[in-house]
Write a structure and sequence with these properties.
Structural class: alpha+beta
Strand order of the largest sheet: 8-7-6-5-9
Radius of gyration: 23 Å
Number of strands: 9
Distance between the termini: 41 Å
Mean pLDDT: 74
Low-confidence stretches: 92-100
């Protein structure tokens, strides 16, 4: 809904800009009006959908069944091999906190392009360029968003083509969307980072539902037990007395084990934010 508000503001700003522009200076003012109208419709639609969409709390403790033919594989995927969506929720999570910036970038690029003088070849070229960028970004994000795999003895993680020994894992961090404690249909993932900065993102809940099977959960727990996970320590705080304050989303080893074994459901607190003595 927040994106819809900003898109609507961009549309209104575009209308005001076009209304104050000398029509003789514009190559084709109709393009600007059409673009502003489209952004306005998309913004209103997003607002209406956001107001109407009130997800119900999901209280699920049922884990999914194992996929067929998984037992014969050397590597077990930590999550479904095929996502129900184009991207997993966490792949675009980094953008969710910057709706104003994203909307401003869209408006700053599209409105001048639509109102300025353009040649007949510009629109086909721009469309082809945007399509190429979209396909490339989609392929890269899709490839990097595949669930990591774990060896049967829980000693190695496979992220893409890179093997990560579980003994080298040093930190664990929880990410959630929405973050609010009373959020409904909440998604949760744990980010495991190795000493060489390699990362593995493992989804635990998606829209309130558990992601990992019993066997996948057992292997992930075994991997974390082999790891040397602790809260990060700042160079000015070698004893880690303020680690909770400086790294509020990071987990201790026991917190990570508890999170994987029993991922918090809707309305349940996340294992972060407690004080360190």
């Amino acid at each position: 809904m927040l994106y819809g508000v900003f898109l609507l503001l961009i549309s209104v700003g575009g209308v005001v800009t076009l209304a104050g522009t000398d029509q003789n200076e514009a190559d084709d003012p109709l393009r600007g009006w059409v673009l502003s109208a489209v952004l306005g419709v998309v913004g209103l639609t997003s607002i209406i959908r956001g107001v109407r969409r009130q997800p119900q709390p999901v209280h699920s403790s049922d884990r999914p069944e194992s996929e067929p033919n998984v037992d014969v594989q050397e590597w077990m995927p930590l999550g479904p091999s095929r996502s129900r969506t184009l991207f997993p929720w966490w792949a675009l999570h980094v953008f969710s906190g910057q709706p104003l910036l994203l909307a401003m970038m869209i408006g700053a690029f599209l409105i001048p392009v639509a109102a300025g003088p353009l040649g007949a070849w510009t629109w086909p070229l721009a469309a082809a360029l945007l399509a190429a960028v979209a396909i490339t970004v989609s392929a890269v994000v899709r490839r990097r968003s595949r669930p990591p795999r774990i060896s049967r003895d829980a000693t190695r993680l496979l992220v893409g083509t890179k093997e990560i020994p579980t003994a080298t894992l040093t930190t664990a961090m929880v990410i959630a969307h929405p973050w609010e404690p009373d959020a409904t249909a909440r998604s949760i993932a744990v980010v495991l980072t190795a000493s060489d900065r390699s990362r593995a993102v493992v989804g635990l809940r998606e829209r309130g539902l558990l992601v990992l099977t019993d066997e996948q959960t057992e292997l992930l727990i075994a991997a974390i037990e082999r790891a040397h996970i602790d809260l990060p320590r700042d160079k000015d705080d070698p004893r880690g007395r303020f680690s909770r304050m400086l790294y509020p989303n990071h987990l201790t080893k026991s917190d990570a084990l508890q999170l994987v074994q029993e991922p918090p459901g809707d309305g349940e607190p996340l294992p972060v934010g407690s004080s360190v003595t």
